[in-house]
Amino acid sequence: MPNRINDAKESDVWVAVKEGDMPADSSRPLLFRTMKVKGSILHPYRLLILLRLIAIVAFFIWRIRRRNHDGVWLWAMSMVGDVWFGFSWFLNQLPKLNPIKRVPDLTAIRDQYESTTGECRLPGIDVFVTTIDPVDEPILYTVNSILSILATDYPVEKHACYLSDDGGTLVHYEAMFEVASFAKLWVPFCRKHSVEPRAPESYFGVKRRVYTGSMQEEFMSDHRRVRREYQEFKVRIDSLFNTIYQRSEAYNRKNTKEDGVKATWMADGTQWPGTWIEQAESHRKGQHAGIVKVILNQPSHKPQPGSAASIDNPFNFRNVDMRLPMLVYLSREKRPGYNHQKKAGAMNAMLRVSALLSNAPFLINFDCDHYINNSQAFRASMCFMLDPCDGQNTAFVQFPQRFDDIDPTDRYANHNRVFFDGTMLSLNGLQGPSYLGTGTMFRRAALYGMDPPQWRVDNINVADKAKQYGRSTLFIHSMLDGVNQERSLTPVFLEESVSNELTTLMTCAYEDGTSWGRDVGWVYNIATEDVVTGFRIHRQGWRSIYCSIEAAAFRGTAPINLTERLLQVLRWSGGSLEMFFSHSNACLAGPRMHPLQRIAYLNMSTYPIVTIFILAYNLFPVMWLISEQFYIQRPFSSYISCTS
């Protein structure tokens, strides 16, 4: 693994920016480098934009002066369309005039925060994974996502993983125990042999990989055994549905009730408090109790090396740390009559629950079909969060979305290279990229709705925050601890009072009368809650960073058919228009937002309108045939009449 994930050397396109002077109160080196496009490329591009702008304005002047009096109504319709095309193009180009690439420096962050004696001062990270249906979102995707998180190259005691199961299904809960069992083998194997990527389905799916570890003589035998164990693990995961069904049938036969209700039973012989296979009152989708279970406890701060190979254990993990990160399963309460706000509501519930369990100052959110493709991704994002110059004002680091299993022609444009490798890099030169919903590291304080340090009051009185954050005393007092990025995680002991408080934080009524979903947490009541949440954070004056590294930090699964892709685009477009016609309109943002950042958000929220005029242009030829009128003036009419 190279010291710098991206090649920071001068290339044919990028050149390093001379960094400013270090802050007077800090001797720490900068943790990332800034690259800009070479002037020999950027200046001609800007000149081309200017020439195109002049040409567009000249075209509009020509159209206005030479309007077609025979078909004024067609001319007016086309003129409105042309003006909108020009306006949209202008909005799209303005934020792209100063593209910036930022390159994390892993050597610098290791030297600053990790000593040779084993002491680590890196802050904690809470990782959120969301899922809802084990059928629509195959459970194999979810378990691979969790395994890649548990095996990532970040101090074990410094990160915790939370799975939010919004469907409240027993199969997800029991799958987490299978994950915890298999992780005891998979995670040490990854550490011993420096495996990349650390999602087993992706790793074993490629026949040939370059070995980067230091124990090649043991690798082949370990690889063969782990692969066999993984195949058995997949069989157990696939059989969970039948296992739970058969167990429940057996228990129900022994515990037959007169009302004929058939419960779903856990392995310990108790009824599952979530959604049952045969849904019943208080045990159906949209109506079940809140559940929080710690699957793997917080590990100790001292490494625990494994044992040498033996007859009972063929793996030699003698010098490998066997500890596993904390793993938590939760499913928030759902009751009829409440708007549960889909993914945004689940994320806010996780945000509150994690504050009482691990309370890391930073967090990362994943969709269940994404996994960690580069085990250095967490450190890479920390380079921006902890940078002595810009780190304290950085609210989130956004990674590009990369996908597997896309056909070579990318017929549905899932890669979206223009957006991820063009628009996002351009926003890097302003206040930062928008939040894209997954693969994002957040600063917990920013999600709590706090202002950046330069605008934040010195003494925050959290005792007066009950109306804004809810009436949980433990949660409110945890806020200041979470803001302090130097705080270390402590072992979790779920006393009865804490367990009751966790249940309270997940209730449907907890957010009533508070600022959750508006000024705190993820934003509600809009289809594109991710973009609007990022907009709210930028509006407060925070900045964000776009980080594209090699190999890609995270990878996921993209829509593989036209129907799914069209539904996805329709949801994005509808959410963008919803944002434009709401209080989140970029024109209403306060003075803390960069002017060009405001234009970028305005462009994001208005781009679907262009489809109206594209449709109109497609219908104009039909209108010509019906009305025998042209919406533009006939070119060179006098010349044509003379020659004819």
Quick recap of the structure?
This is Cellulose synthase-like protein D3. This protein is of the alpha/beta class and 644 residues long. Helices cover 42% and strands 11% of the residues.
List keywords for this structure.
644 residues, alpha/beta, Spore Coat Polysaccharide Biosynthesis Protein SpsA, Chain A, 8-stranded mixed β-sheet, 3-stranded antiparallel β-sheet, 20 helices, 14 strands, globular, disordered N terminus, disordered C terminus, transmembrane, cell wall biogenesis/degradation
Provide a descriptive summary of the structure in words.
With 644 residues, the protein is of the alpha/beta class. It has a domain at 107-238 and 285-558: Spore Coat Polysaccharide Biosynthesis Protein SpsA, Chain A (Alpha-Beta Complex). The chain has 20 helices and 14 strands. Helix 4 links the parallel strand 4 (125-131) and strand 5 (159-165). Helix 4 packs across helix 5. The longest helix is centred in the N-terminal third of the chain and has 27 residues, at 39-65. The relative contact order is 0.13. It is found in: Golgi apparatus membrane.
